[in-house]
């Protein structure tokens, strides 16, 4: 299974002292993090997020591409002004979750690996940070949420919009009742293009491709199916990987961005532990090339109280709550989480807007997250704060599973083209 990566860099296993050995009140009490996945999201979002966090330190990295693994080890070593040899390197994530000196695993892999690594890490006694979406299927999402609950580990999903001030305000204002009864909700997010080369290529020596495929069917290697092998590692990592556009590994933008926006819908409406009752709609799925995720789509999810949530690629990229007293719209504005985030045509959107400015004036009276406060924009810090206080994070496992399930039901609705 691991033959393709055998020529990669030798593994290094320095001694690390875990936080629990030092004790909660030890002056040097620092939670040790293992970063699993050293690609675009890991390097540009999750590792920088944890490097800024207080009370934690990245001490290990794992990737099935040895070039990316070594690039990450060098990045981490430079940040902490230490030697590369002091940063543990592994190709197999089991080598890290089995270590007693690791307290947290940060999962930034392709979508088809998310749930499995989270489940195994939780049963190995690790706290878990995981990129969205929570799972590739609804069933594995339920298994993942149950595993976190059973083990009592602290979990945080990478739904960082919950840590952005405009989303916190919008959801609090909606719950406060400023719109009166919410009658409908609109969610806008982009689609993906077709294309991608179907030409079979030799597997790069740096990549353990069989292991990378994981539980998905065995298919021939081509660069557009995985990620860029550009000789310039920085350019290779910063480019949008092809697996995002292959249904074998993910559902496309409906989970890629939909996990963010439907999570905000659930948060604003207090639907974090429920899901839609009906789904119906349509979607266009690309053919003729390698990439086969959806392009244009139009989906309506109806929740148990009768509120319709329309998810459509023609809406502005964000969430619009529409109520008896007007509407409120929240988005990322001009901000991008990563440099390769897709942009929608037209003028930059306002981060927070409303039909009447008074609907979004002042401070909300509703407190959405009563546990230890994390400063706006410091999403990764919330996991550290929550572990120390022994309280749920801003996006616990059940919440993550429910928002992902709404996305996957939307995908099923696209496929069926009828009411479910």
Question: Can you characterise this structure?
Answer:
The chain is an alpha/beta fold and 420 residues long. Helices cover 31% and strands 17% of the residues. The protein is built from 13 helices and 13 strands. The strands form two sheets. Strands 8-9-10-7-11-12-13 form a seven-stranded mixed sheet. A hairpin with a 2-residue loop joins strand 11 and strand 12 (326-330).
Short summary of the structure?
The chain has 420 residues and is an alpha/beta fold. It has helices at 19-22, 40-52, 66-80, 94-97, 114-123, 138-151, 165-176, 209-213, 233-238, 253-256, 258-269, 379-389, 397-416; strands at 31-36, 56-62, 88-90, 104-107, 127-130, 155-157, 182-188, 278-285, 294-302, 308-312, 318-323, 326-330, 352-354. Helix 6 (138-151) packs antiparallel against helix 13 and helix 11 packs across helix 13.
């Amino acid at each position: 299974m691991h033959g393709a990566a055998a020529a990669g860099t030798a593994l290094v296993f320095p001694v690390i002292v875990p936080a629990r050995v030092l004790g909660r009140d030890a002056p040097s009490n620092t939670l040790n993090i293992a970063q699993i996945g050293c690609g675009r999201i890991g390097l540009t979002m999750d590792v920088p997020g944890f490097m800024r966090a207080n009370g934690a330190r990245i001490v290990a990295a794992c990737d099935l591409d040895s070039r990316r693994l070594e690039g990450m080890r060098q990045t981490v070593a430079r940040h902490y002004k230490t030697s590369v040899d002091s940063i543990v390197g592994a190709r197999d994530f089991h080598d890290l979750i089995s270590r007693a000196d690791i307290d947290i695993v940060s999962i930034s892999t392709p979508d088809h690996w998310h749930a499995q690594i989270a489940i195994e890490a939780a049963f190995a006694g690790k706290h878990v940070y995981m990129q969205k979406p929570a799972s590739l299927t609804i069933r594995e999402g339920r298994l993942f949420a149950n595993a976190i609950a059973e083990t009592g580990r602290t979990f945080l999903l990478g739904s960082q919009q919950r840590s952005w001030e405009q989303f916190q305000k919008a959801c609090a204002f909606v719950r406060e009742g400023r719109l009166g009864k919410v009658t409908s909700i609109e969610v806008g997010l982009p689609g993906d293009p077709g294309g991608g080369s179907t030409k079979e290529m030799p597997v790069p020596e740096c990549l353990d491709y069989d292991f990378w495929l994981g539980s998905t069917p065995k298919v021939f290697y081509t660069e557009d199916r995985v990620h860029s092998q550009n000789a310039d590692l920085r350019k290779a990592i910063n480019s949008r990987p092809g697996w995002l556009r292959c249904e074998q590994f993910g559902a496309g933008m409906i989970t890629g961005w939909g996990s963010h926006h439907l999570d905000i819908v659930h948060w604003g409406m207090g639907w974090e532990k429920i899901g839609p009752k009906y789904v119906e709609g349509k979607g266009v799925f690309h053919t003729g090339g390698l990439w086969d995720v959806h392009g244009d789509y139009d989906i309506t999810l109806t929740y148990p109280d009768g509120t319709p949530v329309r998810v459509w690629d023609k809406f502005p990229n964000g969430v619009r709550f529409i109520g008896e007293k007007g509407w409120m719209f929240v988005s990322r504005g001009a901000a991008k989480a990563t440099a390769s985030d897709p942009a929608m045509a037209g003028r930059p959107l306002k981060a927070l807007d409303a039909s009447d400015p008074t609907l979004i004036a002042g401070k909300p009276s509703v407190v959405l997250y009563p546990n230890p406060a994390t400063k706006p924009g410091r999403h990764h810090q919330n996991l550290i704060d929550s572990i120390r206080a022994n309280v749920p994070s801003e996006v616990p496992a059940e919440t993550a599973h429910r928002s992902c399930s709404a996305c996957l039901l939307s995908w099923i609705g696209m496929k069926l083209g009828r009411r479910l």
